């Protein structure tokens, strides 16, 4: 039987790392988590991702895979039997990849402007942020999950950002919940045990955001 | 037998569109190409890609797929038999996706600063541009193609940008060839008939760049 040595180089506040903690938990894969200090990255991190020098990195039997959506596809391909994330139909797969990329291209950068911005730029970012989630609600439609009746690739790509909602809302004084009712229903559905356990408490993220704002001279 | 109605909404100067013209040609898929006017986008384009409103878009039996790497994977999955682009091994697949994403995240934006920039920013962009291709040469190593003995996903993702080399070099007065010898050898290998036919003449791209610079008030 093939041995599976799985190591995840990660940082607990990273939404990108959370995706992989969720996927590994859903699929019941045992792994060793190594928390990185992003201000003083380990030699292992720099060796395993010399191009981007970023977490998360999955090391499977000594070989590194980088970039969270790429790792998510890898995990889904290698351990496909339990809780498949991407559908088997090529068109449905293309749609899932499209929306996961949409999340990657929009939420992190706009979210950063929401928690770190000031004045007009922050107000603009809040509007854009709500628009992004309205667009995602449009894609969700009347389904329970983005994946349909079962959670899938897009759900796992998106749900980590909900652990940041409290920080976005507190830093920028607005309510995502009040604007995006459908998203809240979806979020409640996502709170099955294995997903919740892989997400940090929103207050822990907020502490991290305050620390970061302090470091950046924004607080 | 399943009917295949394939339409490509495209713009001839787009490196992202070229990827798909190459893939469709390599796989021998007949399709209708519809050239878009990017200053006056068609109602079909806006209907088929309401989120990003961008070419290229592949419409397969009436259903749209957007984002060039996503479309490339879709084409490879639906028409897998002839000239497979992604390898079958999950680790090799993850590496191909990693490098294709690297190309997407780096070349277009840095290339734009090379052809449109001025002074110090342009000099900086030229340096970064060469560094990007040096990194890609490192990945190519001693292989004929990024895909190994046969051209693959990364080769198709990258080769369209070579049709822009003349424009980059002429606008910014430098030589990519002089700095990146390995890349030139690779580029020559790529010039098999079906790839060449899918790429516009470098002078046509240069005319387009001059027109664009004029429109943007840079010429």
Q: Could you describe the 3D structure shown?
A:
Chains A, B: Glutathione binds at residues 14, 41, 55, 67-68. By secondary structure, chain A is an alpha+beta fold. Chain A folds into two domains: 6-78, Glutaredoxin (3-Layer(aba) Sandwich); 90-215, Glutathione S-transferase Yfyf (Class Pi), Chain A, domain 2 (Up-down Bundle). The first copy, chain A, has helices at 15-26, 43-48, 68-78, 90-116, 119-140, 153-158, 165-172, 176-179, 181-190, 193-197, 202-215; strands spanning 6-10, 32-35, 57-60, 63-66. The first copy, chain A, has a four-stranded mixed beta sheet with strand order 2-1-3-4, covered by helices on one side. In chain A, helix 1 runs parallel beside helix 3, helix 4 (90-116) runs parallel beside helix 7 and helix 7 (165-172) packs across helix 11 (202-215). The longest helix of chain A has 27 residues, at 90-116. The radius of gyration of chain A is 17 Å and the shape is globular. The termini of chain A are far apart. The relative contact order of chain A is 0.13. The model of chain A has no long low-confidence stretch (mean pLDDT 95). The A-B interface holds A 51, 60, 63, 65-67, 70-71, 73-74, 77-78, 90-91, 93-95, 97-98, 101-102, 135 and B 51, 60, 63, 65-67, 70-71, 73-74, 77-78, 90-91, 93-95, 97-98, 101-102, 135.
Helix and strand topology:
The structure is a homodimer of 219-residue chains.
Chain A: E1 6-10, H1 15-26, E2 32-35, H2 43-48, E3 57-60, E4 63-66, H3 68-78, H4 90-116, H5 119-140, H6 153-158, H7 165-172, H8 176-179, H9 181-190, H10 193-197, H11 202-215
Parallel strand pairs in A: 1-2
Antiparallel strand pairs in A: 1-3, 3-4
Helix pairs in contact in A: 1-3, 4-5, 4-7, 7-11
GO molecular function, one term (chains A, B): glutathione transferase activity
Domain GST N-terminal (chains A, B): 4-83
GO biological process, one term (chains A, B): auxin-activated signaling pathway
């Amino acid at each position: 039987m093939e041995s599976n040595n799985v190591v995840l180089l990660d940082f607990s506040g990273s939404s990108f790392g959370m995706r992989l903690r969720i996927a590994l938990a859903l699929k019941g894969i045992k792994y060793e988590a190594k928390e990185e200090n992003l201000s003083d990255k380990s030699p292992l991190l720099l060796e395993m991702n010399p191009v981007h020098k970023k977490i998360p990195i999955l090391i499977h039997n000594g070989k590194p895979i980088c970039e969270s959506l790429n790792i998510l596809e890898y995990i889904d391909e290698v351990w496909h039997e339990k809780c498949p994330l991407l559908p088997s139909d090529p068109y449905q797969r293309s749609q899932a990849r499209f929306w996961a990329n949409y999340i990657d291209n929009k939420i992190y950068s706009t979210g950063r402007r929401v928690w770190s911005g000031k004045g007009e730029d922050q107000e603009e970012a809040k509007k854009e942020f709500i628009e992004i989630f309205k667009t995602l609600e449009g894609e969700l439609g009347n389904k329970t999950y983005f994946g349909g009746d079962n959670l899938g690739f897009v759900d796992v790509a998106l749900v980590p950002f909900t652990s940041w909602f409290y920080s976005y809302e507190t830093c920028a004084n607005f309510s995502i919940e009040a604007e995006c009712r459908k998203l809240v229903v979806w979020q409640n559905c996502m709170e099955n045990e294995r997903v919740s356990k892989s997400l940090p408490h929103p207050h822990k993220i907020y502490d991290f955001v305050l620390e970061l704002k302090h470091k950046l001279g924004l607080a």
